[in-house]
């Protein structure tokens, strides 16, 4: 037969009824085959309990904890920030005289901010030298070559139209002081 999907081949209904009947008989046989009396189940459980031997040993009684009061010894605080900074400066000064000069100089206002929080607003010429305008924390600063900015001892080495190039002095993973290049671009130059 041809046509829509509503037509059923002859004999298909009878085959479906037979399959359903066999499925019902199989389910009934499966359920009745599992019927074990409660007494048999109880007897088997008791037998298993008798046969299984547990080899657990008793745990020793816990010992009593006696707290001891902390008595601080008189002496310097090992976590004093001023003391740590002094030690770092001393260690750094011994490693490199140029770094000692970097750490002992007076800090500039833009060194209080992370380089990533600064925005270069533009450049202008003053007496034939480039001056960059940097905005941070709603304030506008003039930056010249030789000024410091950022929290990694970043010294301005070059100012171009839309870009400030810096030399930063940072500690690497081994504790050595190394120089690295960094830059700050204007928002227009970044596009």
What summary fits the major beta sheet? Answer: 4 strands, antiparallel
Q: In angstroms, what is the radius of gyration?
A: 42 Å
Please give the order of strands in the largest beta sheet.
4-5-6-7
Strand segment count: 7
**Helix count from the secondary structure assignment:** 5
Account of the 3D structure:
The protein is α+β, with helices and mostly antiparallel strands. The protein has a domain at 109-190: SH3 type barrels, CATH 2.30.30.830. The chain contains 5 helices and 7 strands; from the N terminus they run ααααβββββββα. It has helices spanning 12-33, 38-51, 81-95, 97-104, 187-190; strands spanning 119-126, 129-136, 139-143, 148-149, 154-160, 163-171, 177-185. The strands form 2 sheets. A 4-stranded antiparallel sheet has the order 4-5-6-7. A hairpin with a 5-residue loop joins β6 (163-171) and β7. α3 (81-95) packs antiparallel against α4 (97-104). The longest helix is centred in the N-terminal third of the chain and has 22 residues, at 12-33. Mean pLDDT is 80; it is low at 1-5.
How are the elements arranged and paired?
Elements: H1 12-33, H2 38-51, H3 81-95, H4 97-104, E1 119-126, E2 129-136, E3 139-143, E4 148-149, E5 154-160, E6 163-171, E7 177-185, H5 187-190
Antiparallel strand pairs: 1-2, 2-3, 4-5, 5-6, 6-7
Helix pairs in contact: 3-4
How do you describe this structure in short?
With 191 residues, the chain is an alpha+beta fold. The chain has helices at residues 12-33, 38-51, 81-95, 97-104, 187-190; strands spanning 119-126, 129-136, 139-143, 148-149, 154-160, 163-171, 177-185.
